[in-house]
Amino acid sequence: MAVTERARTNHDELFPGHVSTLTGTDPELIEVFDNFAFDEVLQHGGLDTRRRLMVQLAAMVASQAHAEYRVMLGAALTVGVTPVEAKEIVYQAVPYVGMAKVFDVLHITNDVLSARGVDLPLEGQSSTSPQTRMEQGLAVQKRIVGDDAVEAMYAAAPPGEQHIQRYLSGNCFGDHVSRGGIDLRTRELLTFAMLVALGGCDPQVKGHTAANLRVGNTRADLLAVLTHLLPFIGYPRTLNGLAALDAVAPSTDVAASTDYPAGR
User: Fold this and answer.
1) What is the pLDDT of residues 199-225, one digit of tens each?
2) Can you give the pLDDT at residue 258?
3) Checking CA distances to 52, which of 70, 144, 217, 234 falls within 20 to 30 Å?
4) Among 40, 72, 82, 37, CA closest to 229
5) pTM of this prediction?
6) Contact status, residue 254 vs residue 220, Cβ threshold 8 Å
7) Superfamily in which the 44-125+179-248 domain is placed by CATH
8) Rounded to the nearest 5°, which phi and psi values hold at 218?
9) Sequence spans of domains, the chain
């Protein structure tokens, strides 16, 4: 089997002039993978190159695929993902994946950006203060999850668990999701990608499927995310994500959105 012309072209867009050492040690596997990931999958994915790389990076953070993340971060920067966007993907992962898994990825990101001549720290993207994080976070949470759903979570939590609900509003949504640098619709795609890649998050995947639809993404956008993640996270977690998508938004065969903000 030879690598197809389309696979080679799409691969070269991300890794210009690079030839993997695995082509010498594992040529059969690389031919199969490149033809699948860089040709066959791209015929059905539907996301533009930048958003495709962003959701794949998010999934790699969740998967702790450090070596592949480093390589794909370089590719993402090559095709126009900005340093701010790259950092915001990592910051977005903290409340969903946990700092223990994000720590090494943050250092890898800093190493890659520094090697490319990017001065750190980058311009801050926080939109809240200690005084406003709870109020603004709750507003963002209600926009994403829905007023009734958020109020129901607070109402259902016993007194000893109310602090967890406040953490969700003030920390997850106030400190992280409300940040600038990436628009809210793209942030929800990133969250969906992280939760699917984590595995064991079926209720949250369903919740953020509905949240994606609420902020303007379509079923086709989410199916495109799953399609683009498949080569990197495998079939079991992809199929679990697909089951959640089908449960919340049954197929209507609608095309993926094309009206994202410019530069996103």
Assistant:
1) 999 999 999 999 999 999 999 999 999
2) 62
3) 144
4) 37
5) 0.94
6) yes
7) AhpD-like (1.20.1290.10)
8) -110, 165
9) 44-125+179-248, 133-173
